Amino acid sequence: MSDLFWLKEAQMARLRPFFPKSRGRPRVDDRRVLSGIIFINRNGLRWRDAPREYGPHKTLYNRWRRWSEMGVFARILVELADQGTETATVMIDATYLKAHRTASSLGGKKGGRGRAIGRTKGGMNTKLHAICDAMGRPVRMFLTAGQVSDYRGAQAISDALPSADWLLADRGFDADWFRETLQDKKIRACIPGRKSRKTPVKYDKRRCRRRNRIEIMFGRLKDWRRVATRYDRNPVIFLSAIALAAIVIFWL
What we know:
Blueprint: H1 9-15, H2 30-43, H3 57-69, H4 72-84, E1 89-99, H5 101-104, E2 118-120, E3 123-132, E4 138-145, H6 150-157, E5 166-168, H7 176-184, E6 188-190, H8 205-208, H9 212-221, H10 225-228, E7 229-230, H11 235-251
């Protein structure tokens, strides 16, 4: 069983303070169950395909759904990031995540709105907006439908911007209101201007090259198959899958 554990005891010690307290009967071994949850999300499997060493698949799924709806994994990401973020420079960007047909049906009672899935040229997608620190580690994340523009996503996540000296972004985030928001927060913007701008915007081209770190971050998150392809209808649970991947890859 030790070969199937994804987390060491030292890593579990960092996570346990964030777990909900057990009430009534003692909870099934957290390390075993969490390892099973990681295994499923990392490999993109059905819950019933989990190796029997992790215990009943219903236990894994019920724990995963319950803690996701409670916001446990999203909270762990924020807390760990706040403890160790290098915020002299932060970066913001967005990436598309393909929605599987099991998650993307939008009609009828099972579909409906508010699922953060939209139609783009590439099909049905969800867009992940993220802020990372100077080391390319995710700090904040937010989901929108795939057709939402980058700067609209930035508008939703701007209140969560950490204190920083610089913010790096591509020209998709070039909007006067966003630059003014950064100025109010005393953050210097390093954002190329849109080609449609009548007056060119000056920016530090050398500093802007560091923005590739957030692209690398997205690539590493997409190594987890339940992140690269969205199977979950519920956006809260899908965001938990992304948060769990970020925690394991970057913050433990």
